[in-house]
Amino acid sequence: MDALSPANGLKLQLPALNSRHARTFFTQFVSVPRRRSSSVLKNGRVRALAKNPGIDFCDPEWKSKFQKDFEKRFYIPHITDIFDDAVAIPSTFCLKSRTPVNEDFADGYPSDEKWHGYINNSDRVLLKVIYYSSPTSAGAECIDPDCTWVEQWVHRAGPREKIYFKPETVNAAIVTCGGLCPGLNDVIRQIVITLEIYGVKNIVGIPFGYRGFSEEIAEMPLSRKVVQNIHLSGGSLLGVSRGGPSVAEIVDSMEKRGINMLFVLGGNGTHAGANAIHNECRKRRMKVAIVGVPKTIDNDILHMDKTFGFDTAVEESQRAINSAYIEAHSAYRGIGIVKLMGRSSGFITMQASLASGQIDICLIPEVPFHLHGPHGVLSHLKYLLEKKGSAVVCVAEGAGQNFLEKTNATDASGNIVFGDIGVHIQQETKKYFKATGNPADVKYIDPTYMIRACRANASDGILCTVLGQNAVSFSFLHFPTIISNIIIISNFRYDPFLAIHIFSQLMMVGLSSTNQYFLDKI
Ligand SMILES: Nc1ncnc2c1ncn2[C@@H]1O[C@H](COP(=O)(O)OP(=O)(O)O)[C@@H](O)[C@H]1O
Ligand SMILES: O=P(O)(O)OC[C@H]1O[C@](O)(COP(=O)(O)O)[C@@H](O)[C@@H]1O
Ligand SMILES: [Mg+2]
């Protein structure tokens, strides 16, 4: 391959080298999110430092104290916290084969004890699977200076043997809020199917997000028959929206409708709402289970390897990138720019760039950059045009917001409306090359809505199925009051934002990768 072909021209930077001091412009184009726990040594290498300066490592008990504190932070409210007389009944979720008895079952089905099909309430999922033997190991995330092995566990999702809701008394509702994301229909479908397996008959969809609680829009009765094929198309069967009624109005409406199980599918805003609804229900002593299923196409949630829709987004982005590449390479001095989702994080942009092998410059919110100047994007574009005649840039929507005029405009949910960094780069690039007397042909593609509206791919489809199932199991079982604990974390570069700690996903936790970055921010 030509040394200047895009795949080679694109520099991937290892996290350990990604320090402000060690970085050159060229190597900053593609970078993975930085960790704060590093310092630069004289030789330019980076040393990982221990986090948690508040811990007294001389205390022989520090490790068990740390683990206790970790467990406490992930305590999930239990229905008996509020209703100490709540009675558990055997699960109605049937794990037994319904097929005709074969030889194995000649003496009848095995008892539940022998079946071992349920999740034990004490089961935990290990969050970190890498043992870093030294703080200098690449990517090391150490709690103490010796990089001691400290186990960090979270609860395991799945059906329990005992439940706290009688299926015949359940009035379940599902609501999808915020922006679209591939996989919403898959999750809705699986929630409905699983609820029916538990024996629930009354299931409705609340149309158009939280707005559906206040406005005169009829709720949608849901059953397996209704949802059977909805995963075959993108969007949300129920519709989505931003903004809407107050929390008190939502809870009034839930009381009026008799809803005692609410599934909210949405992002940080939705879960802030879910948490507020939960608190209001608690205040009114309503026995309601509220379960959040995290939806963020940006894949920026603490502890989660992957959120649904992300994989589809990366895959679908390839079409836009390839089009930008073809346009750029077919034009005289062509430059293609693609903007992808990612308000505070560059996961989609980074992975789509890497997967494509067609991107020369990748810009993400985590890494600041200059447009102008000797180490700016524009001078690198000039270099690329001189060397190979064309170039392609991939930029995350939240990157380079400092170049744009702040309007303080917000959407109906109160989110800050970002300026269009893609348009800005396009304009600046055109101006820059025109001024050099050698114009460039700059094409800009924003595929956001085409990506968001896609049907989930196979991998996301499986993830959604697991999330939907586990959400229902949690609503019924051990922790039915609320699953959506909200932990405020801050993205070190941008405004603090809410990350969602949702337990319906935790059985998916395996080899944590990119999102471990956010662990720092608890
Ligand atoms: N702090 C909050 N308290 C209550 N409801 C909220 C809060 N933030 C957002 N919401 C509501 O949650 C819904 C979705 O929020 P939004 O930010 O648009 O999407 P997302 O959940 O994807 O982040 C909206 O209806 C919004 O009004
Ligand atoms: O035009 P809309 O629907 O407000 O959506 C735009 C925003 O939606 C997003 O997809 C984020 O949506 P969420 O808030 O639902 O995660 C961003 O990428 C984008 O800034
Ligand atoms: Mg949001």
Set out the fold topology.
Blueprint: H1 6-9, E1 12-13, H2 25-28, E2 30-31, E3 38-40, E4 46-48, H3 62-73, H4 79-82, E5 89-90, H5 112-115, E6 124-126, E7 153-155, E8 162-163, E9 171-176, H6 184-198, E10 202-206, E11 220-221, H7 224-227, H8 247-257, E12 261-266, H9 268-283, E13 289-294, H10 310-330, E14 334-340, H11 347-356, E15 361-363, H12 377-388, E16 390-396, H13 421-435, E17 441-445, H14 448-452, H15 458-476, E18 485-490, E19 496-501
Parallel strand pairs: 1-2, 9-10, 9-12, 12-13, 14-16, 14-17, 15-16
Antiparallel strand pairs: 3-4, 5-8, 6-7, 10-11, 18-19
Helix pairs in contact: 6-15, 8-9, 10-11
Mind telling me the CATH class of the largest domain?
Alpha Beta
**Biggest beta sheet summary:** 5 strands, mixed
Total number of distinct structural domains = 2
Q: Which stretches are low in confidence, meaning pLDDT under 50 for 5 or more residues running?
A: 1-50, 97-101, 478-522
* Radius of gyration of CA atoms, rounded to a whole number: 25 Å
Trace the largest sheet across and list its strands. Answer: 11-10-9-12-13
Kindly report the average pLDDT value.
77
Cofactor: Mg(2+)
Keywords: Allosteric enzyme, ATP-binding, Glycolysis, Kinase, Magnesium, Metal-binding, Nucleotide-binding, Transferase
InterPro entries: ATP_PFK, PFKA, Phosphofructokinase_dom, PKF_sf
Catalytic activity: beta-D-fructose 6-phosphate + ATP = beta-D-fructose 1,6-bisphosphate + ADP + H(+)
Structure description:
The longest helix is centred in the middle third of the chain and has 21 residues. The protein starts with 5 loop residues before the first helix and ends in a 21-residue tail after the last strand. It is an alpha/beta fold. Helix content is 30%, strand content 15%. Helix 2 links the parallel strand 1 and strand 2. The chain is globular and about 80 Å long. It folds into two domains: 329 residues, Rossmann fold (3-Layer(aba) Sandwich); 164 residues, Rossmann fold. It has a five-stranded mixed beta sheet with strand order 11-10-9-12-13, with helices on both faces. Adenosine-5'-diphosphate binds next to helix 9. Catalyzes the phosphorylation of D-fructose 6-phosphate to fructose 1,6-bisphosphate by ATP, the first committing step of glycolysis. Keywords: Allosteric enzyme, ATP-binding, Glycolysis, Kinase, Magnesium, Metal-binding, Nucleotide-binding, Transferase. It catalyses: beta-D-fructose 6-phosphate + ATP = beta-D-fructose 1,6-bisphosphate + ADP + H(+). This is Phosphofructokinase domain-containing protein. It comes from Vitis vinifera.
